[in-house]
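Exercise 7. Predict the structure of Carboxyl-terminal protease from Olleya marilimosa.
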Amino acid sequence: MKIINIKHLVLILPFIILGCYEDMDDNPISDTEIKDFIWSGLNTWYYWQDQVIDLADDRFLDTTDYSEFLNSFDTPDQMFYSLLSDQDRFSWIVDDYFALNNTLNGVSKSNGMEFGVGLIDGGSNAFGVVQYVLPNTSASTNNLQRGNFFLTVDGIQLTENNYRNLLFFGSDTYTIGLAELDTSNNLVLTGQTVTLTKQVYEENPILIANTFTVEGIKVGYLMYNRFTSGYDQQLNNIFGQFAAEGVQDLVLDLRYNPGGSVNSAINLGSMIAGEPTTSVFLKQQWNNKIQAILTDEQVNKYFTNQLSDGTSINTLNLNKVYILAQGSSASASELVINCLRPYLDVVHIGDVTVGKNEFSTTLYDSPSCNYSCTTGVNPNHTWAMQPLVGKSENADGFFEYETGLIPTLTLEENVANYGILGQQDEPLLARAIQHITGNGRFSNQPVLNTLKIEDYSKLNTITKDNMYIDSEGLNVFK
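Solution. The predicted structure, encoded as tokens:
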């Protein structure tokens, strides 16, 4: 699949097919068909539609003018990115919506190593560090562990300019050169190498769920790494176990969660808070055309007491929750923090989050349902868009956190002392436990400034830090 990387009244016009575009499989498809879909879909749904001159409803004089505009671009993706607002950091497009849909459901190629990347001593050389390992993968078979460092891929030193190609866009099989910190806190190669192979893999976003008692307080701990709707039932079962065990305080670990399904975020928030279904979880802001035809019921999304299949939600009915989040926590993770705050005391421990308050939806070339479903999709191509179509605010009307959510208690992860996830002495979890018990002062361990993480493996996937609503059947024109 060709992945197109992100940069830094339906109007359907008749047109004449003027050219062909060769896709990755060398199948000729209509260049103009794809471009018409892109323009029409963005004209209908794009959040900043009224601010982009070329997306205006009266932009073109006639069919000829429109066709000339479409064919002024060399490729569909060039046209797509040219139509985005300068405020847009997250919209993207792909040429294979089958792969996109799989990824949204948690299925993609993975070698099981999730990691961070940083620069060494502020220079151009880079390092990687394992953050967690997925079970039943190449990484787990090779006994990689959280905190393992690596400096090379296939014998090539990682740098600021090459690490993406080597780790994300190169071969499905590569060999990393492991490293360790010497007595002067310098990274040096150990001579040990590990060969990893990516395979099609469905990730369970629930990595760890356990309970423990500390000073007579029953604490639940959940590490949840993506909002994937297919695992909502399992998530609900875990909250049932938490309730049965009498959990009094919850530590929700979203530090490596880049986002996902808005519906799953609402479900999770409902499992935590137990608010009545009349309480607003979030309010959606759409572009002016869409907002004008939506009812309050369509704009407001409420806490829920059941999953989509009718299963009753298990809830802890908490009035306080501890959430671990940092610079790799985005979109739906931030949504949960922001939307619980009007109802609960949310203690955010970690670092400043990404700052993604917009949601997207998948648009297909299906004009009969205003591009929001796969019914009647154009069989001539498989391009799809994931444009930002709105912003979410909480019940108090707050949504302006584009620079990230500020933690209640700041504690950066220290790559030299990651700790073991889920264990009570892991630094971020230990800080939450200390706050729960009120047990003394906490001394932050110094972070090695020369080894700070700047990028994350999950933010280099197809879905990146996407927060999306289900587009199937989203036909507000009915």
